[in-house]
Amino acid sequence: ETAWLLQLLIDDPRPVVLVGAMRPATALSADGPLNLLQAVQVALSPEARGYGALVVMDGQIHAAQWVTKLATQGVGAFASPGRGPLGWVDDVGVHLPTACGSRQVPFAELELPEQWPQVPIIFGCVEPEPLVLSACLNAGVAGLVFTGTGAGQLSAGEARVLEAWAGQRPLMLRANRCGSGPVHSHPEDERLGLLPAGSLNPQKARGLLLLASIAGLDCMALAALMTQCQLVS
Q1: Which residues, 6 or more positions from 138, have their beta carbon under 8 angstroms from its beta carbon?
Q2: According to CATH, what is the number of the domain 2-95?
Q3: Per-position b or e across 55-77, b if 16+ CB within 10 A of its CB
Q4: Buried (b) or exposed (e) across 101-138, using 16+ Cβ within 10 A?
Q5: How far apart are CA 46 and CA 132, in angstroms?
Q6: C-alpha dihedral (68, 84, 8, 49), degrees to nearest 10
Q7: Distance CA 192, CA 231 (A)
Q8: What is the mean pLDDT of the chain?
Q9: How would you classify residue 205: left for phi > 0, otherwise alpha for psi between -120 and 50, otherwise beta?
């Protein structure tokens, strides 16, 4: 999530490399020192220029938009589902075989406030309690991310709550709880004030909504930005 926010905010050809460790320094075969060394190698590599924010863990180089943590244990806990890493680091050096291409930085000029807006994530399940969604709407949240079942669908109860809501709707994105795979537009989206999150997982969809809310974007402007930045197909 931190890498994704930096990707949306920092307009600089120099890479911003995030790194961590899955084992403490006191453990046998601690992974932190090697991860740190490889992160520095990537940051210094001319090949990494233009990619924006990167995550380097376990010898792999991941793009901020796709990387996520998939396991609580193990040095290979970070991955980019459906995409794979951009490259890798080994004894020879840094390998980034995929060209980075042009990069959109939609919030490079955004001034961040001291207090950020409220953007909850509502986790989808079979017959969820509508009171959670109702409470969020009544609280006047700036945005909502639905972690829908299947391909990001809302439940019938959640749809009824949105239909009955007479107030101003917050910015709302539909993501999925599957861990990978895109969420495409649905015929009901426009009527309910929803946008598909594309291939963004719920956490990264929330990061996008946080910045969009600070920037004062409405639903149409956010949809245009997501299309321009190729976040949805």
Answers
A1: none
A2: 3.40.50.1170
A3: bbbbbbbbbbbbbbeeeeeebee
A4: eeeeebbeeeeeeeeebebbbbebeeebebeebeebbe
A5: 48
A6: 130
A7: 21
A8: 94
A9: alpha
Q: How many residues does the chain have?
A: 233
**Closest alpha carbon to 69 in 108, 20, 126, 8:** 20
131 phi and psi angles, rounded to 5 deg = -65, -25
Which of 177, 74, 60 is closest to 126 using CA atoms? 177
Ordered alpha helix ranges (H), the chain:
2-9, 32-44, 131-139, 156-164, 189-192, 202-214, 219-228
As annotated, the residues of the chain forming the CATH 3.40.50.40 domain(s) are 121-228
Mean pLDDT of 11-31: 95
- Please return the burial class of 18, using the count of CB atoms within 10 Å of its CB with bins 0-12, 13-18 and 19+: middle
Fold of 121-228: Rossmann fold (3.40.50)
What pLDDT does residue 59 have?
A: 97
**pTM of the shown model:** 0.94
With a CB cutoff of 8 Å and minimum separation 6, the contacts of 116 are 210, 214
